[in-house]
Amino acid sequence: MAAPAKFEILFYGHENIRSNHQKTIEITKASHLTLQGDCIVGVNAKSSCAELPESLKDRLKSPDAKVTFLIKVGDDTFVVKGQGHPNLILTDTQDIVIRKSDFICPRTLGVKCDKASDLLPRRMVRKLQDPKTVGTLCITVW
Questions:
Q1: What is the C-alpha to C-alpha distance for residues 96 and 7, in angstroms, rounded to an integer?
Q2: What residue segments make up the domains of the chain, in order of their start?
Q3: Staple 80 to which of 41, 42, 59, 69, CB 3.0 to 4.6 Å?
Q4: 57-84 pLDDT, tens per residue?
Q5: Beta-strand relationship, 108-110 and 95-99
């Protein structure tokens, strides 16, 4: 079995982070966030779907791809397990969305995930409501 493909994306907090969505988690390159963006856990992300390495995209599009998303904020971590899919598009230049459903659009990075933003520990959410907070999304694909 090949070694897993890994990639990390830095992002920042924002005062309007609520992390209440029951179906998705999103990080965005945008710097502005309204209260309607209740799935967003980070802004000013350093990468979007379009900017992921081609080798990672290829692995994500494997029919049997398993994906682990690790969100790190200081000493706190949150792990989400999901799947890749052969139909992933991965061309959005602003956002990354991981989904509990199997819906696919250019922003979708993973589907059939076991958690959404509503389960992010409230302690992490409070930290992410500080714009100075730095978080990391670690993507591992098997």
A1: 13
A2: 5-141
A3: 69
A4: 999 999 999 999 999 999 999 999 999 9
A5: parallel
Token output for 51: 């900017």
Rounded distance, CA 28 to CA 124, Å?
Answer: 17
CATH 2.60.40.10 correct for 5-141: no
Q: How many other CB atoms are there within 10 angstroms of residue 98's CB atom? A: 26
Average of per-residue pLDDT across 18-45:
97
Residue 138 in tokens: 């670690």
pTM: 0.96
Q: Distance between CA atoms of 48 and 51, rounded to whole angstroms?
A: 5
Q: 100-105: long-range contacts at Cβ-Cβ below 8 A with a sequence spacing of 24 or more?
A: 100/22, 100/23, 100/24, 101/23
Are the C-beta atoms of 40 and 27 separated by less than 8 Å? yes
* pLDDT tens for each residue of 37-50: 999 999 999 999 99
**Which 3 state secondary structure label does DSSP give 56?**
helix
Order of strands, edge to edge, in the sheet holding 108-110?
40-42, 24-28, 95-99, 108-110
